[in-house]
Amino acid sequence: MNQVDYLRISLIDRCNFRCQYCMPEGSDIDYVLQQDLLTQAELLTLLQEVLIPVGFTRFRLTGGEPLIRPDVVEIVRSIANFPETQDLAMTTNAFLLADLAQDLYDAGLRRINISLDSLNPEVFDQIIGQRGRSRWQQVWDGIQAAYRVGFNPLKLNVVVIPGVNDQEVLDLAALSLDREWHVRFIEFMPIGNDDLFHTKGWIDSEDLRQQIRAKWGLTESQVRGNGPADVFQIPGAKGTLGFISQMSECFCDRCNRMRLSADGWLRPCLLNETGQIDLKTQLRAGVSLPELRLQVRELLMLKPEINYKDRISGTTGSYSRTMSQIGG
Prior knowledge:
Order of helices and strands: EHEHEHEHHEHHEHEEEEEEHHH
Radius of gyration: 19 Å
Number of strands: 12
Number of helices: 11
Distance between the termini: 21 Å
């Protein structure tokens, strides 16, 4: 396996969207109480004293929606200023990004992933669960603002849902032609949402590649990221196309990450719940920082086995948390 040096940090489990693949409609989400969230001080202590010393140097801030956390710019600035930080990125829905893009960039954020599942405002609003005023334009404005500020690479995440947005694959891929944008097609993961699709709920990445290949051609790109995406490029395009194929093509051997939930649980694998450590509760109970470091080191040693153990249990409804609660 790759060295595990990449930590996805959920800043909050709440979101201003309710995307059907993340928070299934009709389901009750038990949000973390404010007092149970990691405070900024607790998060920075865990990073400096526990997680960075055991080898984590690359960080991504997620949610829920990280931009609804009031101290998000301060958190970005603090992590960016750690001398050990080699990479700092964020995943956002961009609804609040237009007004925050410059502040985030000035604080030290350099890479950003934005969820954009449709170019059709009506389809977009259907996916995000919006029943009132359309939110597509405000998201598009956030994307444009990030591009103007200088975020590079700018990545657009597309979760392809059969019968909903799969007819837009070519239009979304075309965003990579004239801009240095990197479009990433993600196979839907029915984690904790087994009632959403009673049959296979994703489209294999190879099927998407075949569509794109038939229209423009497709070559493997020389660009490689920190994550599990297989990267391709339309000949002559300025940007790239990534395919994250967690359902059709196992990439456990390439996994280099763990996840820290907004309430302080360190999770070694997205696809099952084995081996999680409750760092926040132990920190508040006075467990020593060296003891917490030891626990995390032991978990790092167990991660290869955990990656392959009950790999698809998250798709069977046996999860205690949905994707929004895990941090994606």
